[in-house]
Amino acid sequence: MIHARGLRHTFASGHGKQKKEVVAVDGVDLDVAEGEVVGFLGPNGAGKTTTLRILTTLLQPTAGTATVAGFDVAKQSVEVRRSIGYCSQVGSTFSGAYAGDEVVDHGMLYGMSKKDAVAHGQALFERLQLDGLWRRKPRNMSGGQKRRLDIAMALIHAPKLVFLDEPTTGLDPQARANLWDHIASLRTDHGATVFLTTHYLDEADALADRVVVIDQGRIVANDTPENLKAAVSGDLVSLEVATDEQVAIARDKLGSISDNIEVDERLVSGRVPRAGKAVPGLLRDLESNGVSLESIEVARPTLDDVFLTLTGRTLRDAEAGAPEADEEAHDD
Ligand SMILES: Nc1ncnc2c1ncn2[C@@H]1O[C@H](COP(=O)(O)OP(=O)(O)OP(=O)(O)O)[C@@H](O)[C@H]1O
């Protein structure tokens, strides 16, 4: 469905002597198969939106090639646009008309008859829990309803591939969880392939079969959330021992299966690959050496841990260090 090779995009930023080049996307290779849900994850300024805009033909790559739904993004933009649904980060700009009319107009733009657009639009409203809102103006809708309306617009022409740019940004936790259900149903109910950007780790984890991590314009990881977490970080095992004397023994025993032990008073912790397998043996070892535990905790790694291991920075550090976009720069 998506095949990109060596995609690169540079923006000119600043004026006169201050003029410099910002490399937003720096040699991206990407493959997305039919039926996959892929999460494109990275901190602010990593290059997610720029990549997405290239794949949806809104921006020409400075270098590299990409095909989307079998069409070349640089040479067959009309065919690409007809084959995809796109929900941008800012959402649609609504004209003040009724929600239903907006969706129908959008479908007719894609060449649908009015009758088909109304029928499909109404079915989508029902599936996306927008029933009763056909004759409501989008400006009078809640944030979650507007995002679902954006998704209805993106789906009106029944595309087989849907791009969602940060679909849940700005929503409260309940509206986010609700939208997750709808995003998951894009594949199950509509048979769509989904490519979504996010900087929420839990979102990629919950929705995506595969996570592609981008940092400073480059892909730094590409795997299932499970494999990423298992391969890179290991699980965090934290042992709380009963007495000060036991700390050294616990450090020694946990240290035999973990490389980076940390001690905080009577709490001894370290990362252990596949802790589920290693911990029973560790517990026996501790017990036979006279260590009694107050508590033990095993935490699965998060994708945040993965990012830290891959780049040496937390997602928060990475976002704080991202260069500012130049609003006046030209896109292409
Ligand atoms: N129009 C522009 N002119 C100049 N620089 C730009 C422009 N758009 C983006 N950039 C820069 O390109 C880099 C990548 O930006 P991009 O918007 O693709 O990142 P992102 O990963 O989508 O970030 P976010 O999560 O904040 O949306 C950033 O350094 C950004 O400042």
Structural commentary:
The protein has helices at residues 48-55, 77-83, 99-109, 114-127, 143-155, 173-190, 201-207, 225-232, 245-255, 275-288, 303-311, 315-320; strands at 2-13, 20-32, 37-41, 63-68, 71-72, 84-87, 161-165, 193-198, 210-215, 218-223, 235-241, 262-264, 267-272, 293-299. The protein has 332 residues and is α/β, with parallel strands linked by helices. Strands 6-7-8-3-9-10 form a six-stranded mixed β-sheet, with helices on both faces. Helix 8 (225-232) packs across helix 11. It is elongated, with a radius of gyration of 24 Å. The protein starts with a strand and ends in a 12-residue tail after the last helix. It binds adenosine-5'-triphosphate (ATP). Residues 11, 13, 22, 24, 42, 44-50, 199, 322-326, 329, 331 line the site of adenosine-5'-triphosphate.
